[in-house]
Fold:
Amino acid sequence: MDDCVCVVGAGIAGLTAAATLQAQGFSVFVLEGRIRLGGRIWTDRSWGDTPLDLGASWIHGMRGNPIAALARKWRIPVLSTDYERPHSCILQVVGSCLRQSV
Ligand SMILES: Cc1cc2nc3c(=O)[nH]c(=O)nc-3n(C[C@H](O)[C@H](O)[C@H](O)COP(=O)(O)OP(=O)(O)OC[C@H]3O[C@@H](n4cnc5c(N)ncnc54)[C@H](O)[C@@H]3O)c2cc1C
Structure:
């Protein structure tokens, strides 16, 4: 297929659109205005072993949620949030609790 599509924006919507189009045989190029990918999903990794989410980090519901499906597809570990005690634990990178009752 000779058609080429330009996707503007490399947030999750643009990247998903680009991947979907590419899977259907289109040539795709993505134009992003910033110097990084991800848009409002932004993990700051300047603290070495301690990634800090400055944008989206919660998957609001695991059933019927396309983000949850992506996490499963890419084997991204997910942790449940306790809404009764949302700040009750600092998590280590590996997902285990570092300290209780913050
Ligand atoms: C602090 C914060 C916390 C959040 N937490 C959550 C959460 O926990 N769970 C959740 O589900 N959602 C959360 N959200 C919302 C979620 O981040 C957004 O809904 C989602 O990332 C939007 O994705 P998008 O691709 O539609 O847009 P964006 O992520 O905004 O991506 C758009 C991209 O297009 C680029 N762009 C725009 N205009 C142009 C142009 N003219 N030329 C070139 N590039 C352009 C931008 O630079 C950007 O990279 C949060 C948002 C913020 C800000």
Q: What stands out?
A: Residues 8-14, 31-34, 39-41, 55-58, 60 surround flavin-adenine dinucleotide (CB under 6 Å). The first helix runs from residue 12 to 23. The mean pLDDT is 85. Residues 1-48 form a domain with the FAD/NAD(P)-binding domain fold (CATH 3.50.50.60).
